[in-house]
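Hey, can you fold this?
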Amino acid sequence: MTKVKKEKTVEEETGGTEKSYQELIANINPIANPLASRKLSKKLYKCVKKAAKVKQIRRGVKEVQKFINKGETGIVIFAGDTLPIEVYCHLPIMCEDRNLAYAYVPSKVDLGSSAGSKRPTCVIMVKPHDDYKEAYDECLEEVTSLPKPI
């Protein structure tokens, strides 16, 4: 007897069913402010993807915190569905102290996959670079125009 390979369905190829923006917003934590819109979230994911290709990102709480303390600049992107929030609740304050632009996106799974990782990521810092300067500047302008929490 020979084994018959089962053909993959479209759902399996994309990694399951994709959730809509509204479903992702339902799971965000209370400190996720300023939250990026659907359009800005897509732009941020694309910018992260471009930065990951040229290795201009910092991934994870520990690494991002270290480089914020060292004075590195860039856009800090947080995942809004990270629990417990104590994991990274000190980082937005550090960003405000150093005048770094930051925003929350709804999904840590999407944030991790846009960085080229199979694991979810709760925070990423995108550093400026000449290869994706237009996308970076556009994202920086939109993130800085978001209303800051009080």
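Oh, and this one too while you're at it.
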Amino acid sequence: MAGISGHWAFVFGVLGNIVSFIVFLSPIPTFYKIYKKKSTEGYQSIPYVVALFSSMLWIYYAFLKTNTTLLITINSFGVFIETIYVGVYLFYAPKKSRVQTVKMLLLSVVGGFGAIILVTQFLFKGAVRGQVVGWICLVFSLCVFVAPLGIVRKVIKTKSVEYMPLLLSVFLTLSAVMWFFYGLLLNDINIAAPNVLGFIFGILQMVLYAIYSKKEKAILKEQKLPEMQKPAVIVIDENNNKKLPELTQEQIIDIVKHGLLVCSDKVNLAKCPHDTKCVVKAANVENTPKLQTVEV
């Protein structure tokens, strides 16, 4: 039984490595934009510093445990790629953002991680050390998974999914599933527990994407629909070269009828060959505005 669970743990660990590898590479388009424009464009370095710190913590935890080689491989890649991201950010960031990023690196990576190693190495021994580091990793991972709540709030407030890419949400959810089963099959609650929250938030993001993307499409569709306009008649006074208010077909008919009643001896009405074109010919009447039909 232990052999079967170990086999499936290896399978889920490999799948977790593949999905997490894709997640780690997801910021590449962002940094390509930064490289092209030679500016960080208001992007923040916090997610990359946090991801770097998280990967370092999990590597330390994996070294204190057994049968967690797959945890070491993916987080080693995480440390490598996140270091590159932070380096590129520091290169193109303005002075103020660069100083803030350096402060965060010193506070978390140097100060925080260094303090965790020193405290656990000198105050705890054996299995207890692994448990303490595991609980630290668990609490920190929970904080990382809660972070997307800011994006969820922004989506609900703006009713737009522009800041929540669907593909990233899908891969984050898949990653949480893989690592949950990996931790469960290894009987390691520190690995399994945080990914339950990650799975819940991942599903929430996809549901919100489905709801608000449909609303966005409906709004765009309404905006693109051409406005249906009925044929209108515009009265143009050629002498003053001015357009009078638009008249509908019914109003023109009424005007013609009244004209026939008042000026029956001076106005001749020509028969209209089409329903949308009527021409009024005025006889011996000077300065009479001409009626023209304009189809809009």
